[in-house]
Amino acid sequence: MTSKQAGGELAHALSVCRPAMRRFAYALVGPDHADDLVQDAAERAWRKQKLFDPARGSAQAWLLAIVADQARQRWRRPHRAWQELHPDALVIPESSAAAVDLAHAVRALPARQRAAVVLHYFVDLPVADVAQVLGCAPGTVKSQLHDARAALEHALGDSYAND
């Protein structure tokens, strides 16, 4: 593959993945810095595009991992960036009471469960890609999602189970 072909594939991946990158950046750093973080991540992806290996995961997971890495580097946190998702990270377009309750309950989840829920249900990543972004096994993500769903069911009660 020529560098021109690789550049075209990266440009396509960035255009397709940019909304997910933006949602994840918003979750990590909030609305004031999300666009800057996405721009930094896109720039880093261009510089490091030769390191992308499709055998190790999807382009979207690779780009989201760069977003998380850039957030960690930018704010020099001693832990993974996803561990402190911004409190206003969950923007649920519906203004119903159920949506507000759901957002509040997700915010109350432990950091790893909250990150798995945001990436899987709000950024729409498959489990394998969530695992790549979080640096764990897919089984761990499934376990975190299972535990999160149980906690959300407990927090929201039976009235939300079939909504």
UniProtKB/TrEMBL annotation:
This is RNA polymerase sigma factor. Belongs to the sigma-70 factor family. ECF subfamily. CDD domains: Sigma70_r4. PANTHER family: RNA POLYMERASE ECF-TYPE SIGMA FACTO, RNA POLYMERASE SIGMA FACTOR HI_1459-RELATED. InterPro entries: RNA_pol_sigma-70-like (IPR039425), RNA_pol_sigma-70_dom (IPR014284), RNA_pol_sigma70_r2 (IPR007627), RNA_pol_sigma70_r4_t2 (IPR013249), RNA_pol_sigma_r2 (IPR013325), RNA_pol_sigma_r3/r4-like (IPR013324), WH-like_DNA-bd_sf (IPR036388). The keyword DNA-binding applies. Keywords: DNA-binding, Sigma factor, Transcription, Transcription regulation. Residues 18-77 form the RNA polymerase sigma-70 region domain. It holds the Pfam family Sigma70_r2. Residues 101-152 form the RNA polymerase sigma factor 70 region 4 type domain. Coiled coil: none annotated.
